Amino acid sequence: MTSRIPELDVLRCIGLLGIILAHVDPPQLIFQLRNFDVPLMVFLSGYLFSHRLLAINSFKAFTDYLLKRFVRLVVPVWIFLTLFYSIQYFYPAIFPINYTAYPQVMLSSYLLWEGFGYVWVIRIFLFMAILGPIFARYFRSFGAVIAFYAVYELLCWMLPQVFTTAVYSGWNKGLLYTLGFLILFIWGSWYPRLQRKTQLLVAVFSFFVLSAGFIYTVLLAKMPFDIGSYKYPPHLYYMHYAILLITLLFSLKKYLARLYNPFVGFIGSSTIWIYLWHILWLLLLPNETWYYRFMLVFGLACFTTYIQQQFVLSLIRWFSLPKKVSDQLLIIFNS
Fold it and tell me: How far is residue 156's CA from residue 142's CA, in Å, rounded to a whole number?
């Protein structure tokens, strides 16, 4: 069994809680504050990948890595979607919207493109798995990463001016989403090698960008400072807010490690299935007060994931499955 890294499991737990929190319609202030959740999860992917970078030194090693990431990321989503749509097909009345009546939505979900709105984040992690190793290997200098970020921000400003809304939508979801999160992935893969003063410098710069944006938006333009409006694609204030919060959290790693317990370890090792099951419960449960709904959705998603894992372990024992089959089942269903 792979040993856990306590502080990283705590950070995964924080990221997952933030993502689920966003889906229960919390007050605007809380919704704004949790805007670092997906960037944190992407950053952690890059951070963990930094330990594998030297091991992926051949085409075969790269394809083996991609196959493992595909099985770990995409196969669980396809299994969940099949079950999700099957339940909807036979019991459409218990869902606010019966998505089986919209084949194009179902296809889009399986393709991880847009679907009914929750699977796009899996597409991001898949693209990070494909492109992250390449970009992390060839963007080796801090200056190159800064130049990459500058070009990306320019594209975010320029493309909406050049293309029609329909054409830009495709470029946005296919290119800009990926490039924006790649910056966070690369930063995560670099983070263990960065000097403390460099990490601090980046955080200070992000703080000044956010401060300038707040002063201009709220005090001068008299408009709300909406960090989330810069999420699709991730750029400017959304990126810098995430960088600032991630740096702060990582500076507290040794304290966060003290929060580790078996339940946190379970969440940290089961994030994808807890995320998937929360979609089902989110659509099934009534629209109660946001904090009750959050506790119910999160609690039931954890419980369903735990039952699923115990069921798979029982199947392996009952049928004395070969190790190769058992390992694949554990990767797919038990993370």
Answer: 21
Q: Output b/e per residue, 274-293; b: 16+ Cβ within 10 A.
A: bbbbbbbbbbeeeeeebeeb
Closest Cα partner for 148 from 244, 223, 80, 239? Answer: 239
Helices of type H across the chain: 6-22, 28-33, 37-49, 59-90, 103-110, 120-138, 142-162, 165-171, 177-190, 196-214, 236-251, 253-256, 262-269, 271-284, 290-319, 323-333
Closest CA to 121 of 10, 232, 253, 239: 232
Cα–Cα distance between 129 and 206 in angstroms, integer? Answer: 26
Residue 268 reports pLDDT greater than 50: yes
Q: Give residue 2's pLDDT.
A: 52
Beta strands in 49-203 (DSSP E): none
Residue 10's CB: how many other CB atoms inside 10 A? 24
In angstroms, rounded to a whole number, what is the distance separating the alpha carbons of residues 124 and 173?
Answer: 10
Please report, as a single letter, which amino acid is at residue 117.
G
Whole-structure pTM value: 0.94
Is the separation of the CB atoms in 188 and 128 below 8 Å? Answer: no
Of the candidates 173, 156, 151, the residue with the CA atom closest to the CA atom of residue 238: 156
Q: Comparing C-alpha atoms, which of 195, 271, 207, 201 is closest to residue 245?
A: 207
Helical H runs in 285-322? 290-319
pLDDT of residue 1: 44
